[in-house]
Amino acid sequence: MKTTAELQQIATQVRRDILRMTTNAKSGHPGGSLGTADWFVAMEWNIMDFDPKAFTMSGEGEDMLFVSQGHITPVIYSTMARRGYFPVEELRTFRMFGTRLQGHPSTAHGLPGIRMASGSLGQGLSVGIGAALGKKMTGDTHLVYTMHGDGELEEGQIWEAAMFAGAKKVDNLIATIDYNNQQIDATVDEVMSLGNLKDKFESFMWKVVVVTDGNDMQQVLDGMAKAKTLAGQGSPVCVILTTKMGYGVDFMQDTNKYHGSVLSADDLPKALAQLPETLGDF
Asked: Rounded distance, CA 188 to CA 153, Å?
């Protein structure tokens, strides 16, 4: 377990990793990765129960995480490397041909920590439900977590899965929605408004936790801890995590410009100047 201050330092380094990885590759999705860094750090260090050195595809005897919006691999890979799944130096190979760190997660290369080839949006909740039901069948009391983009909730499969999970009382499942109101073309409200998301999940028989500032580490920790206390009570749990796309760099924040666009070589130093090196760059 880490202190809140220690987690904040890790998150700052993760944001540096994200910017350096994507700029070096000249491609990637830095915006959503920056916005969810606090959540991923909180999950990997303090919330989830797992051993990065004893990874198995089955996930037996440990908590499992499925990231449905697989395009945010920069934050996935950085937190995994910093947590000890694979060497930090491997972050240099991000998006290079034939490497393990592809633009979307791939199971083909056997990368520890990756159990799902994700990125085709809308599928992760279904996969998480399957894993959660599998744990129930084997008597494994560990939890299954999923992460989703708010724009992803425009996919119909999400709502079929949400209806199933509520109706079948899949109460060892905690799904988090990265609610930044940004997607590739415009704001989520402009493309297809989600309306009252809390009411929608509750109507599907889920318990809901709202985190009003998903870029405040203590709020993230408190919200996820509360979600864990609601598990096992007959309903799946949804965490609505309000974040800012591009958080940590003032000129990248609250815009969809950097959803799938990277910084120029000239802008990278300006961004890194706002994120002091804390753990050492790769």
From this structure: 10
Q: What is the amino acid identity at position 251?
A: F
By the 8 A CB rule, do 86 and 111 touch?
yes
Task: Classify each residue of 203-212 as buried b or exposed e, where b means 16 or more C-beta atoms within 10 Å of its C-beta.
Answer: ebbbbbbebe
Predicted model pTM: 0.98
Backbone angles phi, psi at 13, to 5 degrees: -65, -40
Is-contact 170 129, C-beta < 8 A? yes
* CB distance 147 to 121 below 8 Å: no
At residue 6, the 3 state secondary structure works out as: helix
Give CA–CA dist 275/270, Å, rounded: 10
Q: What pLDDT, in 10s, does the model give residues 183-239?
A: 999 999 999 999 999 999 999 999 999 999 999 999 999 999 999 999 999 999 999
Helix (H) or strand (E) holding 131: helix 124-138
Nearest-angstrom CA–CA distance, 260 and 257: 7
Name beta bridge partners: 210.
240
